[in-house]
Amino acid sequence: MQTVGLIHTLEQCLNRMQTVGLIHTLEQCLNRMQTGGLIHTLEQCLNRMQTVGLIHTLEQCLNRMQTVGLIHTLEQCLNRMQTVGLIHTLEQCLNRMQTVGLIHTLEQCLNRMQTVGLIHTLEQCLNRMQTVGLIHTLEQCLNRMQTVGLIHTLEQCLNRMQTGWGSSTH
User: What top-level branch of life does the organism fall under (predicted)?
Assistant: First the structure.
């Protein structure tokens, strides 16, 4: 796995999330996951997204990100993942995606990224992954993507990130 041009604005966006307070909620969320409740909720969440309209919220969330800062939580999140078992959920999550239609939202999400600057912490994230072991899951994740169709979106995402979206000269 190589570090792609997936870097250059995510830091800004992630560094500001603590302004919105989404951080506290996420932290609590991660803490709950250990208890086992949030994990099942995550799956249900994906299924309900198309029903509840969480999708629109996701878009808003991305827009918020440039004003917020999920960074600290993200790091903690990666560390917790191996403890919480969210890894397995992630795989299921990818499989669910084609069911809930989160794929289309993801595409929109990726497009939004160039606006909100969802890039740069990703690099750190990838580095962290080796530590938490999430890296292996990521690889499996990529393999799963072919199944859910998320792969094409990811490719487009990577292509956009290193081709467009601003000068990634670093």
Answer: Eukaryota
